[in-house]
Amino acid sequence: MPFLSETLSRVRPSSTVAVTQKAMELRAAGRNVIGLGAGEPDFDTPDNVKAAAIAAIEAGKTKYTAVDGIPELKQAICAKFQRDNGLHYAPAQVSVSTGGKQVLYNALMATLNPDDEVIIPAPYWVSYPDMVRLGGGTPVIVTARQENGFRITPEDLEAAITPRTKWFIFNSPANPTGAGYGRDDVKRLTDVLLRHPHVWVMSDDMYEHLTFGGFEFCTPAEVEPALYDRTLTVNGVSKAYAMTGWRIGYAAGPEHLIAAMRKLQSQSTTNPCSISQYAAIEALNGPQDFLSERCTVFRKRRDLVVRELNAAKGVTCETPEGAFYVYPCISGCIGKTSAGGTRIDDDEAFATALLEEEGVAVVFGAAFGLSPHFRVSYATSDAQLTEACARIRKFCSGLHAS
User: Fold this and answer.
1) C-alpha to C-alpha distance for 344 and 340, rounded to whole angstroms
2) Are 20 and 141 in a shared domain?
3) What single string gives the DSSP state of each residue in 220-271?
4) Per-residue pLDDT of the chain (402 residues; tens, 9 = 90+)
């Protein structure tokens, strides 16, 4: 009799976590490695947020809290949705978890039955399909083609919907491409969803505040109020507020769904860290002006990386609307051999050889469901990005026909 669960065989370890871990191991061994794999801002958590956490510690707010968030944080989240998205939620419609990942996981676990289908545009965040599989559901992958700016079309969505569809997972700006759906794009998708009342929407808005130029963020329940009662709008403080390690994610949606997620969380982690919750209140209620300042920095980094990668032989790189990723295509590199003797049969071989030969850690495109590409996180310094891109150009220039 096997010891491990059969469910575990349906999933793979997170590729983004694996790349970051590998880079750390190589650095510990003395290698000069530039890590472009982690989706984590290099900025520090704002001082006012850290001060709020310290104040909470000193006030003894170190005990268990309500399972899915303290009332004060839920009120701050309700205020944020009203302020930023024009969405009205009551505290009973809000769930707070240990990061956005747990919010998504709870929702899927609380709703999926065998044979339920979940539509996921690819390229996708690596955890979406595996969380669906853990919940017993079936991921239905819809390719968002590069010629469409890595955005799916209404026709793509319509063709993927079946009587078994339970959820449509929507992520804009997206990980790993940075592609954003404008209001007209979102309206065309919500028009499709209105024709299929059995399909729920899971909108992952984690990169809401990381947008560039004239792009204006919007979320499905905001664009189409008729979808309000079957939309879970997910967000968190990790990316915009540089609070990845604090582990606070949240969502708002129909009260019966939130209650089901609370029930599940009560038998897993119970409450998120009490100190992190008080810090998150300050993040959401405190000054927000630094967000635009950091976006300016990220936009400059984006432009630097896109320019430098497009100068690499065999590489083409789109200019994304938001987040802090680019997703270059390496079709011109496939089938060649690296200077170190590795045949580049796919994007995983490209990423592996790039790390071993030039000390640059990126995540290969197959992990996100669309090849031949790789993901670069440009949430690091200009100097690191400049050096990393120079190494990537060197690596690509060394590729030759077998």
Assistant:
1) 11
2) no
3) HHHH-GGGGGGEEEEEESTTTTT-GGG--EEEE--HHHHHHHHHHHHTTT-S
4) 578 888 888 787 777 677 777 778 878 888 899 999 888 999 999 999 999 999 999 999 999 999 999 999 999 999 999 999 999 999 999 999 999 999 999 999 999 999 999 999 999 999 999 999 999 999 999 999 999 999 999 999 999 999 999 999 999 999 999 999 999 999 999 999 999 999 999 999 999 999 998 999 999 999 999 999 999 999 999 999 999 999 999 999 999 999 999 999 999 999 999 999 999 999 999 999 999 999 999 999 999 999 999 999 999 999 999 999 999 999 999 999 999 999 999 999 999 999 999 999 999 999 999 999 999 999 999 999 999 999 999 999 999 997
- Residue 53 in any domain: the answer is no
Number of domains comprising the chain: 2
- 221 & 299 share domain: no
Q: Do the domain assignments include residue 371? A: yes
Q: Which helix (H) or strand (E) holds 130?
A: helix 127-134
Q: Which residues of 140-167 are buried (b: 16+ CB within 10 A; e: fewer)?
A: bbbebebeebbbbbeebbeebbeeebbb
List own/partner pairs for 63-67 with CB under 8 A and 24 or more apart: 63/274, 64/270, 64/271, 64/274, 65/271, 65/272, 65/274, 65/277, 66/271, 67/262, 67/265, 67/266, 67/270, 67/271
The last residue of a domain, from among 250, 285, 320: 285
Domain shared by 295 and 255, yes or no: no
What is the residue whose two structure tokens read 């919007």?
218
- Count other C-beta atoms under 10 Å from residue 105's C-beta: 21
